[in-house]
Amino acid sequence: MSDPDWLVWVREAQSIAQTGLTFSPEGYDRERYLALQALSARMMAALGGGDPALLVTLFAAQTGYATPKVDVRGAVFRDDRLMLVREVADGHRWTLPGGWADVNLSPAENVAKEIMEESGFEVAVDRLVAVLDRTKAGHPPQPFHAYKLFFLCSITGGVATPSAETSEVSFFAEDELPADLSHDRVLAAQLHRMFRHHEAVLPPDFN
Length: 207
Fold this sequence. Notes:
CATH class of the largest domain: Alpha Beta
Number of helices: 6
Structural class: alpha+beta
Largest sheet: 8 strands, mixed
Helix content: 25-40%
Shape: elongated
Number of domains: 2
Order of helices and strands: HHHEEEEHEHEEHE
Distance between the termini: 13 Å
Number of strands: 8
CATH topology of the largest domain: Nucleoside Triphosphate Pyrophosphohydrolase
């Protein structure tokens, strides 16, 4: 699976506008970059079915040199069973705990924080097992380019506790993985790879 050409082009135009506004804060170039940013939002709305006003606001909020966003996910095992959480924002579908990385935290600190917030478990972050381009990994198209970082983690404390973001916390054997996954966040093939990394120390996956 790959993103449609129009989405790749719109994202590139938006990133050019964003970076241009960073380095050309005044004059005619700024006006041109603002126009390109607004045009990118209108194109994405027309081709992707979004709200033009919302996309203009979303694009305008992106500042600085345009780079991929970073999503972190934690694979937590207990007795060879993988922990998944139900994501409230995606129809209570299952996923690995995680989310967008926050500033001022390392990738490992981010994933530990996300796991605690979404599952109630404290963890030690053992090792990085995958760095994936979200589009090339086969996730559904999204407005922004992103990298996904997967970490293998082990429980050090806490108890299973759903949150405002998650409605259930459970552990699954590999042959019991649920079919209703939040594909924006995780794919079945990625879950199976987490079991392989749990079974043996392998080189990190990348694409």
